[in-house]
Amino acid sequence: MTLTGFHILVLGGGTIGAGWAAGFAGAGARVSVVDPNPDSAEMIAGLFDKAVPIIRDLGTCVSDPIAPVHCLSLDAVNGPIDFVQEALPERLPLKRDSLCAVEDHVSDDVVIASSSSGYTASEIQDGLRRPQRVVIGHPCNPPYLMPVVELGGGKQTTPDFLSAAQTVYEAAGKTVLRVNKELPGHLVNRLQAALWREAVHMATLGVASVADIERAVTQGLGPRWSVVGPTTIFDLAGGDGGLAKFFDDLGDEVDRWWDSLGTPRLTPENRALLVEGMKAARDGRTSAEIAARRDRLVPRVMGAVQQDPTNETVDTSKGGIENVQDNQTFRGGRRWDADDGTIPADGHRR
């Protein structure tokens, strides 16, 4: 599948929405961003200009991407819409009302994906005319840089819309993680929350400074995690016996570690401690400087992993733009075969 000529509507022009818009546009899509705030236009355009060189480094950028178009309302969107990516603030009534309005502007076979980090698809789809097309498509931030998208459905979502959404995300160079059970925070945020909870616990106990806890991740856990996941690390620790041998040797010790993990609360005192600790960890650097370093170095790390001949991740430089799904174009759960434009009778992906 290719996204060239594919029209994606992004609802919301904030950090996530503008990031999605830049990523989709870089992958060749025509993108319209609806946000009633006139000032959003500057942010959307600025982020696109910043993101394109990064997307090129990632190998997921077409040769001549078209900048996203900012629209103040749905009525201002020009042309049929093939896919909807909602990226509004985390307020459930706002999301529901906005998606109900969107349904009047798109055909019945168009996927509506929500970027929600906390609400489930079942909560969001309630009240929509066609709830079966609502999916969660939650990115890691920023969406133009990070490859992972968490994809899941709700109680009323049908498999064809999940498959169609996955095809679109893969065509944009994304690595899709299927979330098979609805939980607040989905997958990545829950893993992140678990680690941060213990980081906060150790900082508030005075075990280490915020700066050293940051370094424990960036220089200890992080380099390994870019290649192997948390369970693989302990599988390797078991040697030839793998995880079973590790459990025999250290399973009881792991239970003891888990029993000692903290459950801190973000009290005013703990918030103040963390804010001061983060000021020290910044070492005078601004948020813009830290983000620029992130955007510069993360593609290098991912590039090194992708270039390894034993890499098991998606090679977006080869499959992200032109070669996904044998160049079949998906729109809203239906398949257009590239050679003749026909649609299967059942409308489902095979």
UniProtKB/TrEMBL annotation:
Entry-linked SUPFAM superfamilies: 6-phosphogluconate dehydrogenase C-terminal domain-like, NAD(P)-binding Rossmann-fold domains
**Residue span(s) of domain 3-hydroxyacyl-CoA dehydrogenase NAD binding:** 8-181
Q: Which domain of life is it from?
A: Bacteria
Q: Does the keyword Coiled coil apply?
A: no
Annotated membrane-spanning segments are none
Q: Which UniProt keywords are given for this protein, alphabetically ordered?
A: Oxidoreductase
Q: What organism, scientifically named, is this protein from?
A: Pacificispira spongiicola
In what residue span(s) does the 3-hydroxyacyl-CoA dehydrogenase C-terminal domain sit?
A: 185-243
Q: Give positions of region: Disordered.
A: 308-350
UniProt lineage: Bacteria, Pseudomonadati, Pseudomonadota, Alphaproteobacteria, Rhodospirillales
Pfam families the UniProt entry points to: 3HCDH, 3HCDH_N
Q: What is this protein called?
A: Hydrogenase
BP terms from Gene Ontology: fatty acid metabolic process
**Molecular function GO labels:** NAD+ binding; oxidoreductase activity, acting on the CH-OH group of donors, NAD or NADP as acceptor
Q: Respond yes or no to whether keyword tRNA-binding is given for this record.
A: no
